[in-house]
Amino acid sequence: MPDSISLNKYVAETGICSRREADRWIEAGRLAINGTIAVKGNRVEEGDRVTLDGQPIGRRPPPVYLAFHKPAGVTSTTDPKDPDNLIDFINYPERIFPVGRLDKASTGLLLLTNDGDIVNEVLRVENNHEKEYIVTVDQPVTDRFVRKMAGGLPILGTRTNPCEVERIGPRAFRIVLTQGLNRQIRRMCELLGYRVLTLKRIRIMHIELGDLPVGQYREMGSFLDPA
């Protein structure tokens, strides 16, 4: 079918998500072609009607870039089956999705967009984009703790990269990561016998949370534009 296109590429080119996210939507049965639930490997031809959760998708909308202050208790997912999903919480008039994640218990800066092309550029590990966090723990932050956290620790079958760590209070520290391992900071702390009480992301690349109120968002230009 020379005039067809793979479903995941078609969805990504509408700008609502990445190909990887489109694959997850296919596996979850959220995408349909001409009223038939899609499966992996489906292709889209000219004139086909593609829907997500019953709503048609197609022409790329104007790009949307949001900086959002995620509260604790909101899940970084677009899945409507999750009652705490962030899409229902934000209630933005356009379809958007998160770039990366924050644990449900964590707070702070989360980026959202409808531009699927920008996701890999922001998340690609080799780009070494910085993410900065303020963390409080259940014990005093010692020199040994700071040294161990900064030097790298073995978690999830690998070793974390050396990173910047600074004590900013008796039981609080600031940490700057260029990795995005699952629950990385919490796992690192647990390995050293500490329990995270609060975790707040305050910066991604050049984008700062600033004084954005909890639960609110601000619209901005492309995430890759320092201006």
Q: How does this structure look, described?
A:
The chain has 6 helices and 17 strands. By secondary structure, the protein is α+β, with helices and mostly antiparallel strands. The protein has 3 domains: 5-57, Structural Genomics Hypothetical 15.5 Kd Protein In mrcA-pckA Intergenic Region, Chain A (Roll), CATH 3.10.290.10; 65-123 and 207-219, Pseudouridine synthase I, catalytic domain, N-terminal subdomain (Alpha-Beta Plaits); 130-204, 2-Layer Sandwich (Alpha-Beta Plaits), CATH 3.30.70.1560. It is elongated. The model has no long low-confidence stretch (mean pLDDT 91). InterPro entries: PsdUridine_s_RsuA/RluB/E/F_cat, PsdUridine_synth_cat_dom_sf, PsdUridine_synth_RsuA/RluA, PsdUridine_synth_RsuA/RluB/E/F, PsdUridine_synth_RsuA/RluB_CS, RsuA_PseudoU_synthase, S4_RNA-bd, S4_RNA-bd_sf. Its EC number is 5.4.99.-. It catalyses: uridine(2604) in 23S rRNA = pseudouridine(2604) in 23S rRNA; uridine(35) in tRNA(Tyr) = pseudouridine(35) in tRNA(Tyr).
CATH superfamily of the largest domain: Alpha-L RNA-binding motif
Largest sheet: 9 strands, mixed
Task: Measure the end-to-end span.
Answer: 44 Å
How many helical elements?
6
Protein name: Pseudouridine synthase
InterPro entries: PsdUridine_s_RsuA/RluB/E/F_cat, PsdUridine_synth_cat_dom_sf, PsdUridine_synth_RsuA/RluA, PsdUridine_synth_RsuA/RluB/E/F, PsdUridine_synth_RsuA/RluB_CS, RsuA_PseudoU_synthase, S4_RNA-bd, S4_RNA-bd_sf
EC number: 5.4.99.-
GO molecular function, one term: 23S rRNA pseudouridine(2604) synthase activity
